[in-house]
UniProtKB/TrEMBL annotation, chain A:
Native organism: Humibacillus xanthopallidus
The name this protein goes by in its record: Sugar phosphate isomerase
Source organism, top-level taxon: Bacteria
Lineage, highest ranks first: Bacteria, Bacillati, Actinomycetota, Actinomycetes, Micrococcales
TrEMBL record, chain B:
Tagged with keyword Metal-binding: yes
Alphabetized Gene3D superfamilies for the sequence: Metal-dependent hydrolases
GO MF term (any one): hydrolase activity, acting on ester bonds
Name the UniProt record assigns to this protein: TatD DNase family protein
Pfam families: TatD_DNase (PF01026)
Family, similarity comment: Belongs to the metallo-dependent hydrolases superfamily.
Species per Swiss-Prot/TrEMBL record: Humibacillus xanthopallidus
Amino acid sequence: MSPSTTPATNPMTTRDAIAQVASDPATIERHFPAAARIATREGRDGDAARRELLLAIPGPAAYVVDLVRRVYEHGDPAERRAVLLALPALDAPERSNAVGDAALPIVRDALRTNDTRLVAAALGPYAATYLDDDAWRQALLKVIFMGIPVEQVAGLAERSDAELARMVRDFAAEREAAGRIVPPDALTVLALVDTPDPSPSRAD
Amino acid sequence: MRIFDPHIHMTSRTTDDYVRMHAAGVRAVVEPSFWLGQPRTSVGSFTDYFDSILGWEPFRASQYGIAHFATIGLNPKEANDARCREVLDVLPRYLVKDRVVAVGELGYDSMTPEEDDVFAAQLALAAEHELPALVHTPHRDKLTGTRRTLDVVRESAVAPGAIIVDHLNEMTVGVVAESGCWMGFSVYPDTKMDEHRMVEILRRYGLDRMIVNSAADWGNSDPLKTVRVAEAMLAAGYTDDDVDRVLWRNPVEFYSQSGRLELPDTLADGAQPRDEELVGAGATFEGNSVLRGARD
């Protein structure tokens, strides 16, 4: 058996696990799946514990990104969501090994899913900073389509633009033509872009 | 009435089934990993399948108000294909996942030496990960297979109380009752077990360690057979509490041995499910219907 066969009821504490990842980063693969239930037993937040594990990975950015991607790819939805939520912290400017845009494949993977928790978690400040315009607009349209509240999307006002407004208007027209309800969030997005303000296409 | 189906292959079922199950009182299910009808030929097919029953399927179930857990293992049919044996190497990383509540389903198909090895190796993994195990009995040569199954269990490090021996019938229940293992019954439209025979078995052997499931899959099966057993129990004079014990508290007790069976508070003992908690339009993403988008 591989060394990753640590018992599920690992007696290790969150603190010990973080210390072990700092000294032997590959051990994150066995600590990460159990981290939330161990943290919960300690009265800590599972997502925060998982974020601390990821932040404890030492080494250059490229190494950190490789390991973070592996943790994501081997993760269940709760683990994947925790990775997505940790991306802004992994890219914090004060970190010498900030990941930059190298973790974008993780965001793109999550946006391809049909799981509302993952799509919502993918559209945090990290995606607002790095995701290209086409992908961001498609993601926003998908958010409206899936019924995820648009106010949960980071950078909504800053990144909404005239092209997104066109897409949302077309979507609304399609719904109206079918006699179906236009989600209120579609109007929220249009209101951000289509303002009576004479300044072109941007609301703020 | 609250129903826990401890063995059902929801991947093979439609959303209509989720709706019907919820309407009938099913609030939690365990999906054992198993054969898909078409034999797989590589580890990648297995990992995508495991990811699906730990990812997409629980999400789909949650949209219909049903809690979904899984058991993970290499089934005996495919254990006979050398190309699939490498699945054993990836099992450890799945056996630590939050929604994995047992190893399984394990056991025999044709009782080959390869099946012996893989069965014993996975019971060792169960012991190592402190998980219970779901073991099925073979379709053919069933009594011999059941005895051999119990021999392997006795030689393993897993306690009998952490094992379900499933798909039992009148011929095989006795030896399992004596072994201390839990007794599983798959109630089918016309094979394995039916609801009336099930009630007779409960009369004869009592309600301790009794597990009733639909084992519904891609074959001729019915995801509401658990409910039919509940109805047959009531018609035979069993109380509501007896029904709750067999169809809820017993499977909860068994799978709770994993330490990972986290059920919603609304399903706690004494909290009867309410219609308003339902599904469909009630399944929300912090206020917004998930289903609205998912159905588009």
